[in-house]
Input
Amino acid sequence: TQNSPFAFICTMQKKHDKGSKISACERMLSGESAVSLAAEYGLDVSTLRKWKNKYLGDREAFTGSGKPSLT
Output
């Protein structure tokens, strides 16, 4: 909850590794729903669409160690 002293834990963003990002993009491009994939990966749909645009432009642009971030 927002008023909890541990609220910061709820705002941690999960970073996904390059393979996960590519997999999500390929699944979306093969026809899977962006909404259902975003829910599965714990993302906002806009983030998944940004990944797709990067994937279509330059697959080597993907970064991410797979470690949680507090940003």
